[in-house]
């Protein structure tokens, strides 16, 4: 079964990206025919007026993917804009997708509210789900790894495939959701980990920076004194323990509730644990960062493979539409 997925190039990757998606991709590549792309065009949907860091984000994302364990011998890794057929299929789809389909996408109005200081009344922002559909269908993706909150986006892709097939003949599959229970890793302030909130721990951060960021985490706001019993379920640090230290998480919970450990000591231990778990990533990252030609070769070879498949599918789409 063919799987297609991508990550938007709008900043440097953080631990939330690694835990929530990237580590899952590493496992999927051993079971499926996987196409993973750096979505640089999608990065323009909200940051079209600030592209200074885009090339950096693309390069650093590729480095993080390789450091996390994506193997170019087992999956196809490439940059979206290196395969122009994504844009051509997006254009063809945009000719018949009703505006009402796009306006009802849940995240459209949500993100308009979240980024109310930016001018996002653009076609690119409204139409990005159409580009997303093209990203998947240009490889005839049969499944997409998603969480439940992303199901409306995938359903739109299915509707677009269905409409194309009805009007022009059976060409595209209707991709299924490969539902994954992504662990949600909060930012150090307790909100969703996000580059825009400045609450993330970057995958490119050195171990000392990881330790410093962990030490700045918010903990139980009701625990004023060291002797006060804690409430782990409302503590950001404990969530990190559950993800990075699952074997000891219950012991940490008991110590916190019994006031057997203070927040400062708990976060000091946690910083060491996170750094140790991520140490192989840091080591591989340093190796790939020091060998930019190797990273470029991987991306260029991935684009060559992706382009060959995209051109084949695009020829079928053109033929179906009598273009």
Give the structure's gist in a few sentences.
With 323 residues, this protein is mainly alpha-helical. The protein has helices spanning 15-28, 40-47, 54-68, 85-94, 99-103, 106-114, 123-126, 128-137, 151-168, 207-215, 236-244, 249-257, 263-289, 292-320, and strands spanning 2-8, 33-39, 75-79, 143-146, 176-179.
CATH second-level architecture of the largest domain: 3-Layer(aba) Sandwich
The major β-sheet equals: 3 strands, parallel
Q: Report the CATH topology name of the largest domain.
A: Rossmann fold
Query: Low-confidence parts, pLDDT < 50 over ≥5 residues?
Result: none
Span between N and C termini?
A: 29 Å
Strand order of the largest sheet: 1-2-3
Number of strands: 5
Number of domains: 2
What do the pLDDT scores average to? 93
**Rounded Rg:** 22 Å
Q: Which percent bin holds the helix content?
A: 40-55%
Bulk shape: globular
- The percent range for strand residues is 5-15%
- Structural class call reads mainly alpha
- Look at the structure and give the CATH class of the largest domain: Alpha Beta
SSE arrangement, N to C: EHEHHEHHHHHEHEHHHHH
- Give the count of helical stretches: 14
CATH superfamily of the largest domain: HUPs
């Amino acid at each position: 079964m063919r799987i297609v997925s991508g990550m938007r190039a709008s900043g440097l990757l953080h631990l939330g990206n690694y835990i929530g998606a990237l580590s899952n991709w590493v496992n999927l590549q051993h079971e499926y025919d996987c196409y993973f792309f750096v979505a640089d065009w999608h990065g323009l949907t909200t940051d079209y007026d600030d592209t200074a860091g885009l090339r950096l984000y693309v390069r650093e994302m590729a480095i993080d993917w390789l450091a996390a364990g994506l193997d170019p011998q087992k999956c196809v890794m490439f940059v979206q804009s290196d395969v122009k057929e994504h844009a051509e299929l997006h254009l063809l789809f945009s000719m018949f997708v009703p505006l009402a389909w796009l306006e009802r996408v849940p995240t459209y109005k949500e993100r308009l509210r979240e980024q109310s200081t930016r001018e996002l009344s653009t076609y690119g922002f409204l139409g990005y789900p159409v580009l997303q559909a093209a990203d998947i269908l240009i490889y005839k993706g049969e499944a997409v790894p998603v969480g439940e909150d992303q199901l409306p986006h995938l359903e739109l892709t299915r509707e677009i495939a269905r409409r194309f097939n009805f009007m022009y003949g059976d060409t595209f599959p209707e991709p299924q959701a490969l539902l994954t229970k992504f662990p949600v890793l909060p930012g150090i302030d307790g909100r969703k980990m996000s580059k825009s909130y400045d609450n993330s721990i970057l995958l490119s951060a050195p171990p000392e920076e990881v330790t410093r960021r962990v030490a700045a985490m918010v903990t139980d706001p009701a625990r004023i004194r060291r002797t006060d019993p804690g409430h782990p379920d409302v503590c950001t640090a404990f969530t990190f323990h559950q993800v990075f230290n699952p074997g000891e998480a219950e012991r940490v919970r008991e110590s916190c509730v019994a006031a057997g450990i203070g927040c400062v000591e708990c976060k000091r231990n946690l910083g060491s644990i996170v750094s140790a778990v991520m140490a192989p990533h840091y080591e591989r990252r340093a190796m790939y960062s020091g060998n930019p030609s190797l990273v470029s070769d991987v991306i260029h070879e991935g684009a060559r493979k992706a382009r060959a498949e995209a051109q084949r599918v695009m020829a079928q789409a053109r033929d179906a539409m009598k273009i």
